[in-house]
Amino acid sequence: MNVQESVALVTGANRGIGRAYVEALIQAEARRVYAAARQINSLKEIVAIAPDRVIPIALDVTQAEQVNAAAQAAQDVTLLINNAGVIGSGGLFTADSIETAQWEMNTNFFGTLAMVRAFAPILQQNGGGTIVNMLSVVSVANAPVFGSYSASKAALHSLTQDIRAELAPQGTHVIGVFSGPVATDMAENVPGDKAEPIEVAKTVLQAVETGLEDVYPDAVSQSVFSAIAEPLKAIEKQFATWLPQ
Ligand SMILES: NC(=O)c1ccc[n+]([C@@H]2O[C@H](COP(=O)([O-])OP(=O)(O)OC[C@H]3O[C@@H](n4cnc5c(N)ncnc54)[C@H](OP(=O)(O)O)[C@@H]3O)[C@@H](O)[C@H]2O)c1
């Protein structure tokens, strides 16, 4: 896919990696970018970068009416970037761990599922398009320091593999981004080196252009996946053949 010709929609576009996606898309001269955020006022600065091409949209991915309204308003989308995500704290045995896990699953898994269900027909009518899902290194092994977040990102990894197979016949390309720590609000308490959001966003846009399925955008991600990427992909491809042709 040619990013310059794309019309993108980015969820959670007001800060962190989402904001960096919008910046990278504008630098790459994308035709239009729908910047979606829960609070539309939080998008003022990012819209100001290119007011003719950045369209603000109010969107909480856990609210079905808002997801449907976004799909109605953005019928020309060819590149959907599911970036919005949340992380809780505490282990699985704290007083509120079930509520925390439900919040993470509702946003990270069900919110993304709602978005791909709403936008798959739009991508199809626009020639196939590309979906990007923000996964994590903890999608493939649980980090108990944020155990239920890891579970939600494992579920999102599984969803990503499913839609890659189910949407292949309509020509929709699906990318999973297995990010390590990135310097945003979400990772402020994570020690060690962190990638810059803009570098992650640019690496992903290159993958959109070259048609990669899996992106390892930083050193932590690359070291986690160097030994397992190939066997994981082989299992995914094998299970995908179970779909009826
Ligand atoms: N930072 C990392 O180290 C890291 C590593 C691997 C993967 N990731 C993933 O990358 C994505 C972006 O993370 P980030 O680091 O940029 O996080 P962040 O700085 O905490 O930003 C999260 C974004 O998601 C939005 N959001 C949260 N709940 C939402 C909802 N229900 N509907 C719509 N938007 C919602 C937030 O909006 P508000 O401003 O309204 O809260 C914010 O724009 C997430 O999916 C995260 O899991 C991050």
Task: Detail the topology: elements first, then pairings.
Blueprint: E1 7-10, H1 16-27, E2 32-37, H2 44-49, E3 54-58, H3 64-73, E4 79-82, H4 97-125, E5 130-136, H5 147-166, E6 173-179, H6 197-210, E7 214-215, H7 219-225, H8 229-240
Parallel strand pairs: 1-2, 1-4, 2-3, 4-5, 5-6, 6-7
Helix pairs in contact: 1-6, 3-4, 4-5
Bound molecules: NADP nicotinamide-adenine-dinucleotide phosphate.
The site of NADP nicotinamide-adenine-dinucleotide phosphate (NAP) has 30 residues, from α1, α4 and β5.
Please give a handful of descriptors for the protein shown:
245 residues; alpha/beta; Rossmann fold; seven-stranded parallel beta sheet; 8 helices; binds NADP nicotinamide-adenine-dinucleotide phosphate
Following the backbone from N to C, one meets helices and strands in this order, namely EHEHEHEHEHEHEHH
CATH-level-4 superfamily name? NAD(P)-binding Rossmann-like Domain
Summed up, the helix count is: 8
- Topology, number of strands: 7
Q: What is the number of independent domains?
A: 1
Under the CATH scheme, which architecture would be assigned? Answer: 3-Layer(aba) Sandwich
Helix fraction by DSSP (H/I, runs of at least 4): 40-55%
Largest sheet: 7 strands, parallel
